[in-house]
Every structure is written in C-alpha cells, then in structure tokens.
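Cross-check.
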Amino acid sequence: MPEFIEKEISSILNVKKFIDPWFWDRYTLNPYNGCSFGCVYCDARSDHYHMPEDFENKILIKKEPHTLLNARLTRARTLPKDVVGIGGVTDSYQPAERIYKNTKNCLSVLLKHGYPVHIATKSLLIEKDLGLIDEIGKASWATISVTITSSEPHMSKFLDFRAPAPAKRFQLVERIKKETKNIQTGILLIPVVPYLGDDRHALEDLVKKTKDCGADYLLFSSGMTLRNKQALWFFKNLSQFRPELIPRYEKLYRFSYDHHEYKGLYSPPAEYTRPLNELLLELAAKHQVPIRIKRFLPKDFRKLNYTIAEILFNDFYQDELLGRENKNLFWAAHNIQKLNESIRNVWNRGQLDQIWNVKGGLYTRVEKLLRDLLQLPEDR
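Predicted model, tokenized:
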C-alpha cells in the first residue's frame, strides 16, 4: 500500500509555451505527484519532473487543487478556453483518487468555467466520472486516452504490472464509446518498448483490438525515451526480467550498461524508428484505425486558425514518422494557431506571407486551404 503525503501547493495549472500538437493541450494539470502504477518505463521517473524519489510508494496529494484552480480561472484574463491536459506526468485516476477525488473536483471546476479536457489514464476508476466528463464534452470537448503499451498479459505484467490488465483497458474504451455521447476516446501506444512490444504479431494484435473496441484513434510513438533515473530503473528491472536484452539496448541506445549512471541516447535512432513507424502506419491502414486525435475547435475566431493548423500538424506528423521532417511546416502551423485574429482577416489584408514560415509552397497550401474551407472560388 503506498504512503499518501498531503502537500500544500501554491499553483495547479501549468501554461505551455506552445499548444501540444499531439494531445492538443494548452494547459496541463496534475492532481498528484508520484504514481502508484509505477510503470517500469515511465519518463516521469527522470530528474526532469522532480517527482518523489520513491515514485510509486510515496504519493504526494496536492491539497485543495480545485480551490486554487477555481480562483485562477475566475480571475483569469489571459487564459483563453482551451484544452487542459490531465494526467500527463502521473495518472490522475490512480488509487489515491478513490480517497481524495482531486481529479473529479478539478473536472467540476473546468466544467463550470467551460474548459475542454484531455485525460490520459490506465485506470478503470475513471468510469465513475464518465457522466461528468460527458458533460464537459457536451459543453466544449472531452477526450480520454487509455494507454496500452502491450496487449499481451505476460508482457504487461512487466511493463505496468500495477495497472489493470490490457483486456480491461480495451473494455474501458468500449464502455466509454457505448455509454457516453460526447467523449472522444482512443488508445495511446506510447511508448513502443523496443524488443518487448515491437514485433509485428504483437503490434497487429494491439491494432486489431483497438479497432474491435471501437476506439476513435491509435496514437503511437516508436521512440521510447531514456534518461538518468528513468533509464537506470528500467535497466535494473530489465536485467532481472530479460537480461539477454541488455546488449541489444546497449547497441540501440549506444551506451555501456552502468548501474550508477546512464550515458546513452535519449531516443532510438531513425534506422530503428522509421521501419517501425512504417509498419504501424501499414497496420493502422489495414485495420482502418485513425492515427490522430481530432482537436478541439473553439467557437471564436480561432476555429479557422485551429482547423488549418490541425491539417498542417497532421501532415507534419505523417512526414516525421517517415523521416521527412519539415520544420517550416511545423512552425507555420504553430504560428497560425497562435494568431490573435482570424487568419481570414490576415489574408484579406494581403498579409498571409507575414505569418512566420508561411512562404513559398506553404503559402500556396495555406491559401488553398482557406479557399476550400471558406468555399471561395479560385479567383478570390
């Protein structure tokens, strides 16, 4: 049983510099620090996130986060209604939620103020709040992403043994689809763990089950990241579970295994990730599973901007998977979605090329998108 430690906090809502083009969140919120699920590969173990040293056994309970959140949103003048990502660092529906209800209370505040949400979880506890989340979806937008890194029970027992079995998580997605009307839901295959979850049979089984449960998408990342404490924990456990794989990881991440320090790559090189991405794209197409989350579209002037940015980001994502990274495309999308007015106004003034990175072929592409979306003739 983990130890719960209550902690006074001074803030709860984090504002990102840029909207995340994968999960579409502008803000993040974590009701707890540390996570009882203790997944062996979890990036939040790294020094980067300042989590408790005993990550899965000492859970910091943030006191009254909903009160702080309500106060922040009540007085907010520079926080436009946009997606709040919940549970990106620790699972917001880990067992502590059964007692403290920090996540539920924060969701009630977000509903009150009209903010859309994206929740990432592995927990079945979220079922008790589906009605509340469905209300948020009806009022604005709500998405629940269920993480499954392997559909094989024996592999899941190593990767995330404290989380519900993969079959139960697929059933959770199926239940969300059947019991709610306003929640988008899908599977996060993040990360694909090298040599433990990357063979074709295992991946096709996961993609097929994603399709069968009615998921709206399968979002995947083939580049499992490793750094400092996270890497040391992963290899400590791997050396007990599958020690014969250590040399393969040394070759892939270009390091020599040391129990005290990790000096390898942050993520696998392209020669590993590109063929894996091609395989996942092939399998997703075969089973007709979308690979992107449909983003929140505000009802104000941002709607057109976000729509165009979403199309460009989706193109960038596909290109990046196949090793055709286009930074101009990426930054053009960012600069369009952060405009303080409708891109149509900018276009009407003949200033489309003054948006950073909207040059040359991208200028032509954005102009065509504007015409198509606004149903305007070519001579406009």
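The mean pLDDT is 96. Residues 372 and 378 are 9 Å apart (CA to CA). Passed to J.P. for a second look.
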